[in-house]
Amino acid sequence: MSRKNHIIVPLPSKRQFYGHGIPGVRLEQLVGKLIVVEGADGSGRSTQIARLVDWLETSGHATVQVGLKRSTLVSEELQRAQGGNILSRTTLSLFYATDFADQLENIILPALKAGFIVLADRYIYTLMARDMVRGMDEEWLKNLYGIALVPDAVFYLAVDAEELVQRNLSKNAALDYWESGMDLGLSRDMFDSFLQYQKAMESAFRELQKTYGFTIVDGNKSVDEVTRALRKKMDAVLAGA
After folding, report:
1. pLDDT tens digit string along 39-83?
2. What is the pTM of this model?
3. CA of 173: how far to CAs of 45, 106, 161, 192, in Å?
4. Which fold would CATH assign to domain 3-227?
5. What is the pLDDT of residues 10-20, one digit of tens each?
């Protein structure tokens, strides 16, 4: 598949990869569901995924969870490398791509083959948005993540940057170096850098939405309101709509 043919707008009902995929995978055997919840730190992803897991398992569905930096192959090394705040944009990108590829091959695909519902706490879209904000070539990124399986549904929890600041400070009493884009030199002030970086990430996600067709959910609403919205959308996914 050429890079020019990589664009897929609606999420399809038949299994497919975004690009070249992984050789030897029989897509018709992947009978489970892959559900992705995207959003910045403080958007409520983890809370909503935990609620979805409880709801799904109570309804009799087996679930598996994946997310960033959870690969047994490189997660610890990536965590240590980020702690030094010295990674180049390309090294950081390839670290995360390796983390994703390992989980895809060893967790996501086997779980889907077994009929599980796989809930991903972020997917390739966050990784691509981060890299785009850091000046990486979008076509190169599409080719890099051509191994990715097209999910059954992707929900992006959109939250205003100002609200994200308050939520992160309330939870951690501090802002994260990378989530504030401090490596980009946007501002010496972490608070101001965070606002600029998150607004740039929001813009990148809006661009990616045009290509990948994921659903944008208003994450500024209350936790219960977001939960109801996600469950309603999940009902449609499980019904095959």
Report:
1. 998 999 999 999 999 999 999 999 999 999 888 888 777 777 767
2. 0.87
3. 19, 36, 16, 16
4. Rossmann fold (3.40.50)
5. 444 489 999 99
